[in-house]
Design brief:
The protein contains 18 helices and no strands. With 415 residues, the protein is mainly alpha-helical. The protein has a single domain, classed as MFS general substrate transporter like domains (Growth Hormone, Chain: A), CATH 1.20.1250. The longest helix is centred in the first third of the chain and has 30 residues.
Length: 415
């Protein structure tokens, strides 16, 4: 790791890699804990006597509080500091996960899922802020994507790991074991994380933080916010509905789903990491990280309509191929949008901007989750995939139109 104008000391370099490792592990557990419900969808539906509408209520119990908490999560991270804020959120969501495994009724389970949604969001503006402070700007996408990749690794591991825990022990253990691991991780973060002495410098972004009220007046903020509102539901579908799709629409058992359901997530992870590295190379070549990342996102969005083909694929292999392509588009967007925020806004604002965008993304997912339950039961699965295929191209139009460098006048209004 290196920082512009300030070569790191060996001790700082070692600490950087420790921080990246801890953030990767936290992302892993963050996704694993939320993914457990979708892997166990048929089991949970049978256990609590639910239909798809009831399952959608459980999904939205998480997503609603997730969206509500997300909008202020960046502010909390910036006020409490990364060390305390992430310790509290990792420990809190881990306890909520354990609670899900001990739930004896639908409403108790829904309550703990809501608590999980309340506590998980701070992690994402947290690691975006950490990498904005620690990583060199033209390598920022690479390191942010490494931290974020822990989430997709969690999604990859969730299908076989949760299926194995539930089959060998019980569905309760599938929640409790990851929760205990999270409590241990929270202790490690508290003991090992410290802010850098000299934060990394971003040449194209204002140095000082903009006041909260000024953030809401920026076209660039609304470009990123609306782009996530429109595109995030596709990734939420992959997380919460795709494992059940293999079992209910393709006729696979829980074990069979566990053996192949990780493949789209692995492909998405590799594709997203590759896109992030490519965006850093384009940033160095163009000398303008913001422009490079916007162009890459627009090109990736052209692959979004592949989702429309999913229910028409004649075999399982082709279905997995199409869903893997959709996952690559989703993670290209998520992995590259984070550093785009760091390229556009002051370091003191990146956590808030990313949190606001995440809140809008989760809100879009709430609306879509409700629509999935309605569309699949009334209009058929094909209409849902048609909608999925259109979201990224629409989001790309919004992003290109609105995300521009902040005007100098905005820097003078900074505090």
């Amino acid at each position: 790791m290196s920082r512009s104008n300030h070569p790191p000391t060996p001790a700082a370099s070692r600490r950087f890699y420790v921080i990246v490792s801890l953030l990767l592990a936290a992302s892993f557990l963050n996704y694993l804990d939320r993914q457990t419900l979708s892997v166990l969808k048929p089991t949970i539906k049978a256990e609590f006597g639910l239909d798809d509408s009831g399952y959608a209520m459980l999904v939205n119990a998480f997503t609603f509080t997730y969206a509500a908490a997300y909008i202020g999560a960046g502010w909390v991270v910036e006020r409490l500091g990364l060390r305390l804020a992430l310790t509290l959120c990792i420990a809190g969501w881990s306890l909520a996960t354990i609670g899900c495994g001990l739930a004896s009724s639908f409403f108790v389970l829904a309550g703990f899922r809501a608590a999980l949604g309340l506590l998980e969001p701070a992690h994402f503006p947290g690691f975006v802020r950490a990498m904005t402070l620690w990583a060199e700007p033209t390598r920022r996408a690479t390191w942010m994507s490494v931290c974020s990749a822990g989430g997709t690794l969690g999604a990859i591991a969730a299908v076989p790991l949760i299926a194995w825990l539930a089959s060998v022990y019980s569905w309760h253990a599938a929640f409790v074991v990851p929760g205990v691991a999270g409590l241990l991780l929270a202790g490690l973060w508290w003991n090992l994380y410290r802010d850098p002495e000299k934060p990394a410098v971003t040449p194209t972004a204002p140095v000082q933080a903009l006041p909260w009220r000024h953030l809401w007046r920026q076209r660039a903020l609304w470009g990123i916010v609306l782009a996530r509102f429109i595109s995030d539901p596709v990734w939420y579908f992959c997380l919460f509905w795709m494992p059940g799709y293999f079992q209910e629409q393709r006729g696979l058992s829980l074990t069979e789903s566990g053996s192949i359901g990780w493949i789209p997530f692995m492909a998405a992870n590799i594709g997203g990491l590759s896109a992030a590295i490519l965006s850093d190379r384009l940033a160095r070549r163009l000398g303008n990280p913001q422009k490079a990342r916007v162009r890459l996102l627009a090109v990736a969005a052209l692959l979004g309509p592949l989702a429309i083909l999913t229910p028409h694929m004649p075999g399982l292999a082709l279905t997995i191929t199409v869903l893997s392509s959709v996952g690559i588009v989703c993670l290209t967007w998520l992995f590259v949008l984070g550093p785009l925020v760091g390229d556009t806004f002051p370091a003191g604002n990146v956590a808030s901007v990313w949190a606001i965008a995440g809140a809008f993304g989760a809100t879009g997912a709430i609306i879509f989750n409700y629509g999935v339950g309605q569309l699949t039961s009334t209009l058929g699965i094909e209409r849902m995939f048609l909608l999925l295929g259109l979201l990224h191209p629409v989001a790309a139009v919004v992003l290109v139109a609105l995300v521009k460098p902040l005007k100098p006048a905005h820097a003078t209004a900074a505090t």
